Known about the structure:
3-stranded antiparallel sheet; 10 helices
Amino acid sequence: xxxxxxxxxxxxxxxxxxxxxxxxxxxxxxxxxxxxxxxxxxxxxxxxxxxxxxxxxxxxxxxxxxxxxxxxxxxxxxxxxxxxxxxxxxxxxxxxxxxxxxxxxxxxxxxxxxxxxxxxxxxxxxxxxxxxxxxxxxxxxxxxxxxxxxxxxxxxxxxxxxxxxxxxxxxxxxxxxxxxxxxxxxxxxxxxxxxxxxxxxxxxxxxxxxxxxxxxxxxxxxxxxxx
Length: 227
């Protein structure tokens, strides 16, 4: 058996991730019509893998499928996004406290490098790159905690939250504030102070969500009906 061979990724899996990224990044706008026929032509596949991918997205609440009517990009659910925020905050506070006990100087340097990258992104005004770098920062802390699967659970829980993050990214001063808060978190980790690290993470997540929540009021057409 040749262990060096990499098993090809199934078409349905590829289509799922490409569509998921496009929806989360708002390249496919909430409410937009999704044509199975066009997707089949675009990816050069039959309807089966396209339907499998769309069903997975529907299970995550990113796509609405109405039999005999049509398939649409779902509108953002504030209720689900808020639930994702609560889950994320609980898990990230736990992970940052655990990370204090494990973090090395090399890992502190890696986190500082990510912050420098964020500063560079802001300086060049390439905001579309910021949130991926932000996720790398938080994922790295989860890895340092010794519980890397925490980030996998957070990623699943925060999908609607991520769409709100895209909306809030252009808010003047928001990402600069986020970057400063990241630096505060790293300084708390470097001092090996779990209470300071937790407080810094809590403030960071709470203030970010407050900015995102304003999007619900200002861009209501992209959201489900208010609860």
